[in-house]
Amino acid sequence: MVKRAFALARSSLASGARHPRTAVMLGRLLGAGFLICFATGLYSHFIQDPLPGMWFPTRPVALYRITQGLHVATGIACIPLLLGKLYTVFPLLFAWPPARTVAGLLERASIAVFVAASLVELAIGLVNIYQWYPWPFGFRQVHFALAWVIVASLAIHIGVKLPIIARWWRRRDSVGADGRLRPVGPGEGSLGRREPRATGLTGAVQRIIDRAPAPPEAVSRRTLLGAVGAAAGAGVVLTVGQSLPALAAVNVFAPRQQRVGPQALPVNKTARSAGVIPAATDPGWTLTVRAGDRSRVLTRAQLLALPQTRVRLPIACVEGWSVSADWRGVRVADLAALVGATGRGITVHSLQHGAYSTSILEPDFAADPLTLVALEVNGEPLDLDHGYPARLIAPARPGVLQTKWLSSLVAR
Amino acid sequence: MSGGMRATRVALVAVGVAGLVVGAALLVTTVRPSGLVGVGVWLLAALVLHDGILAPATFVANRVLRGAGARVPPVVLAVLQIAVVVGVVLTLMVLPEIRAKQLGPRNPSVLPFDYGLRLGLLWIVLAVLTAIVCAVLLRSQRNRRSVRYSGSVGVDPGAEGRSPPCHVASPRSPRSPCCCSPAAPSGGPRRRRSPPPRRARRPPRRPRVRCH
User: Fold this and answer.
1) How near does any CA of chain A get to the CA of B143, in Å?
2) Closest to B212 (Cβ–Cβ): which among A21, A124, A227?
3) Which of B21, B39, B65, B118 to mutate to test the interface with A (most CBs of A within 10 A)?
4) pLDDT tens digits, chain A, 412 residues: what are they?
5) Cis amide bond preceding A389, omega within 30
6) Is residue B133 part of a domain?
7) Domain boundaries for CATH 3.90.420.10 within chain A
8) Which of B31, B38, B100 lies closest to A131 in CB terms?
9) How far apart are CA B45 and CA B112, in angstroms?
10) What ipTM was assigned to the predicted interfaces of this complex?
């Protein structure tokens, strides 16, 4: 009974679009997308939690803006690519017998893990950029761990399917002289075909399903590729304006928009949610700079009296959005020189408590002439939500490390 | 299989198994037990939602669309299908955003748009664009057909005896599947039912598509 039902499913699902060449074409795009997401994701993870001995470049200044914008845009493009890839290979779910060998069983299990992890990873990644967390686990830990599971499963999948991938990789091996796709031989990754009409109930169902005319195979295939391409293109173009100013005008669905927020900058954590309003608005606020026994305590007026530097740097969030702004303030290197800490790394402390209340400036970042204790943005004193009285701004760093509401800089 | 390919396959599977160990170790060491149960539930739910609901729904929708569009040229049907896929995929992506906005963003710069309204407008734009493209396609097909029949060239005289090439629906059996596939040998024993007479009188369609 199950065998006949599976045969019916395979037969009904047979379509011109379900050809190993299509699976390879979509699969290599999806594989590339996953690898881009993995590489940019690792960069983002380790720049926030570096392992001992890790080093990160300070140029280009928009480096994190680019990697994280790419991470989110690629992830969005992967959603229709994944759905299209799964559509292509869906009949394999109904293979009979489900597995012939132990190795075959393990392979199917690894595919189940691969598919489930990919679906969950893209779903929680997408919903995370909406700042909604409807799951009972920590986003960051699970997103990171599943990324490893996915890339590992991808390697296994490529290893298992390599002969089929190689067979259908190139156009000239896939298309005959007549311009049609070559038939799928034994062991070349058949994705099912129409079965002879069965009898009984399954035959009756098959007749109903087969009553609709099937389009020419090439049309089926191009419809699938066109649909996946159009959906991926639309998904990216209608959201990437949150990180790419050139496409801000067609930002229809992104969770952020360029220049929407106080002082034309989006905000992630507000002063109210950080619980810093009393301390940040206290007229007696000072910034302490310390290196060992030497320290200087500076009021905001004293900071403003020091040499001011203007820089144009992006604020780039892990959630993918990024906006450039004009910052004005005192170089961290100049402040470090006041206490003889030139060339050393610096720990930056905020008035806020909890996660991200401190961040570490490695020596390269602390010495960088573009790294500032910013006092103004876009020509005005910092808004309270942007870190008034003073915040850190440095090149090539994620927004969560651009500490706001500073209290002290301590040489390491 | 060449030795090089075998070595590559073994290496890929070995790297993959090592990576799975890393992923599993990360899950176990960084996620609390209650969270791990949640991860398991989500993974299982993803499979059920996709394989049990989304994929069958896609199949049924595709079948209904093909059944309803039996007399529409395949290319026009393809444009319709692409539009539906784009609309549905974007809807799946935007629905949680609408929900997140309902629940209340943390500050006014998060989720600043009216996403429900924008999704509605997207569907309208998609419908209009699709209608325009389909109208142009239908008109160009009609024009080409009238040119063919006003001239001296009628039906390809050789067409009757041959199996139809992949990109041309034969007037005799417009429903015959493409001959690209080994699964559909034209003229073979699995040839479909003959089309209704109304269709047999229609001139041959020449959708402008090619195989890969």
Assistant:
1) 21
2) A21
3) B39
4) 888 889 888 888 888 889 999 999 999 999 999 999 999 999 999 999 999 999 999 999 999 999 999 999 999 999 999 999 999 999 999 988 888 999 999 999 999 999 999 999 999 999 999 999 999 999 999 999 999 999 999 999 999 999 999 999 999 999 988 888 898 888 888 887 777 777 788 888 888 888 877 778 888 899 999 999 999 999 999 999 999 999 999 999 999 999 999 999 999 999 999 999 999 999 999 999 999 999 999 999 999 999 999 999 999 999 999 999 999 999 999 999 999 999 999 999 999 998 889 999 999 999 999 999 999 999 999 999 999 999 999 999 999 999 999 999 999 9
5) yes
6) yes
7) 264-411
8) B100
9) 31
10) 0.94
Q: What is the pTM of this model?
A: 0.87
Q: What is the largest CA-CA distance in chain B?
A: 78
Residue A189 amino acid letter = G
| Cβ atoms < 10 Å from Cβ of A77 | 24
Residues B48 and B114 in one domain: no
- Whether B5 maps to a domain, the answer reads no
Most A CBs within 10 Å: which of B41, B85, B210, as the mutation test of the A interface? B85
- CATH top-level class of A264-411: alpha beta
Round to whole Å and give the CA distance between B194 and A9.
Answer: 24
Q: In sequence order, what are the residues at sequence separation of 6 or more whose Cβ sits closer than 8 angstroms to the Cβ of residue A51?
A: none
Q: Are residues B125 and B85 in the same domain?
A: yes
